[in-house]
Amino acid sequence: MKILAIETSCDDTGIAVLSVQDGSTSGKEGNFVVLANEIASQIKVHQKYGGVFPAMAKREHQKNTVPTFVKALKKAKLLNPRPCTLDPKKVKTFKTILEREPELLKRIIPFLKKYSRPAVDYIAVTNGPGLEPCLWVGVNFARALSCFWDIPIIPVNHIEGHILVNFFNENSKLKILNSKLPTIALVVSGGHTQIVLVNKIGDYKILGETRDDAAGECFDKAAKILGLGYPGGPIISKLAQKASRGPTPTDFKLPRPMMYTKDYDFSFSGLKTAILYKVKKDIGYAPLKPNFAKTKKGKIYVAEMCTEIQQAIIDVLLKKTLKAVKDYGAKTIILGGGVSANSELKKQFQQACDRHCEEQGQSGNLNLVFPEPVLSTDNGAMIAIAGCYNRKKIIDWQNLSADSNLRLGE
Ligand code: KG4
Ligand code: ZN
After folding, report:
1. What is the pTM of this model?
2. Which of 43, 219, 263, 277 is deepest in the core (most CB within 10 A)?
3. 323: burial class by Cβ within 10 Å (0-12, 13-18, 19+)?
């Protein structure tokens, strides 16, 4: 059985193909193979603005979807070059489905004339949460293919994708066994910051989330204030490594918003404002000019700021995650989303888990699981894996819609 997966919730166009052997959803053996996991990034387009513009991201998805789809099918050896005559009735329906995606329609008609139906059994597609205009590109692409080729659709929650990609190792063997449940998943990206209690695959409860900006968004906005590029997370993380070792000088101290509140919620917009005011006070203006970080004084200042920004974000994420672990007796922490690619974050979470084990003894084993960087950021493989587990939830293309506020466990 093969699952084609489509992910367009933010600024990455991800198309993957997963081959699944029978029985793999029993949860004992994850015997599947990722045949292709192609991603078209829009970083270059959004770089000059320091953030993702939904209308522009939608346009890019429309341009990138078909080429990425072709690449993925080719890699999975499923590209079927056989000229087809298109049934005019179907083409008419097809045009209605892609009415609001004219650029995609323009690219897909020639594809359908040139290639015939690939041997896939399901189409899994992210239908939320995410940026509404972007989600619709993937959703309508899936609807169009489903209508044209008669392939059932599995709607997938993007956050579930970030969580489930952690359940398997590179040989697709289940690595979070029942004895390591429940787990607390921290999903941190440019669009989301959520703490989710995972009792088992399919059983989720959102314990807390950000009330304003996401953690990745805070990295991105902070980088913009410091005159650095986009996306901010990897740049800040790299520059922080260049800062002087040892404790951060107190005059670089930034607030840790909501760190000690009794809930599992976050707030990062105050941190961004504090960074803005601090830079204005220290340097005299903000955002900084890109050349500032190249001067001798600028290099030291920006590196120290990056260290402190990164640490402020890690501190609150870690504190709230450990609180959830304690309150719910979790045996595993899962990290997911773009920010989980941050090596300092992973290091400090690992140290915290080791400390927890030392304090609690044998009974208190706490495992840390995170994806390899290519599976941390948005990709199609995570949607295919989540789709595999949701095969019973297939719906007709007529009934599928995008929901930017889709929530796990509801
Ligand atoms: O999951 P993702 O690819 O897309 C969204 O769903 O948003 O995450 C992108 C976010 C960006 O905000 C980016 O700055 C952040 O993840 N990010 C990082 C790192 N790599 C990506 N943040 C901190 N450290 C990193 N190494
Ligand atoms: Zn994501």
Report:
1. 0.94
2. 219
3. buried
